[in-house]
Design a protein that fits this description.
The protein is an alpha+beta fold. It has two domains: 67 residues, no CATH class; 94 residues, Cation efflux protein, cytoplasmic domain (Alpha-Beta Plaits), CATH 3.30.70.1350. Helices cover 51% and strands 26% of the residues. The chain has five helices and five strands; from the N terminus they run αααββαββαβ. The strands form two sheets. The protein has a three-stranded mixed beta sheet with strand order 3-4-5, covered by helices on one side. It has a two-stranded antiparallel sheet with strand order 1-2. A hairpin with a 3-residue loop joins strand 1 and strand 2. It is elongated and about 75 Å long. The two termini are 30 Å apart.
């Protein structure tokens, strides 16, 4: 879910909480029902309430669409093989697997991985921290070799690109 959708959801949740509090207040007679009805009868013909209702409707539709059609990271990668048929592997599973053995390379820690499938080849982006004193080109080559070897062995597909981005140069905590 994008940050925009999270902000909308937060505002929508607050609005629904206010509506729930109003219902509770009216139901326990803290505000007499006739005063609430008198307020509700002033709504017709007021453009402010029409705009508020339209915004609420648009927010509801946006959240509904975001809920049902969002790509929340649980997408599957489809691998087609002549011998094995069609295999589906979760992006999250591959990302977690690659992060686990990337963190085992000496000097690499805190790896976060993003994978993308293009033409039956995997493209891998790794964001990780590197310890001080580590030779970054040698470490990058070792991570690249490890990713290519393990993905080929376990999943049976080729890796077209492995990009290692060093987000920090700091010791493991």
């Amino acid at each position: 879910m994008s940050i925009f959708d999270r902000i909308i959801l937060t505002l929508y949740t607050l609005l629904m909480a206010v509506a729930a509090v109003l219902i509770i207040i009216v139901s326990i007679n803290m505000v007499p029902l006739d005063q609430f009805v008198a307020f509700a009868t002033r709504i017709p013909g007021r453009w402010e309430y029409t705009v508020g209702g339209a915004v609420l409707l648009l927010v509801s539709v946006r959240l509904f669409v975001a809920n049902w059609w969002s790509n929340s990271g649980s997408a599957d990668l489809t691998i087609e093989s002549e011998h094995d048929g069609v295999i589906h592997v979760s992006e999250n599973a591959l990302e977690d697997y690659i992060a686990s053995f990337s963190n085992e390379v000496y000097g690499v820690h805190g790896a976060k991985v993003h994978v993308k499938m293009e033409d039956q080849k995997l493209s891998v982006r790794i964001n990780a921290s590197i310890e001080p004193g580590i030779n970054i080109p040698d470490t990058t080559d070792e991570v690249r070799r490890t990713v290519v070897k393990n993905i080929r062995k376990v999943v049976g597909i080729d890796v077209s690109d492995v990009a290692l981005y060093c987000k920090h140069i700091k010791a493991k905590e």
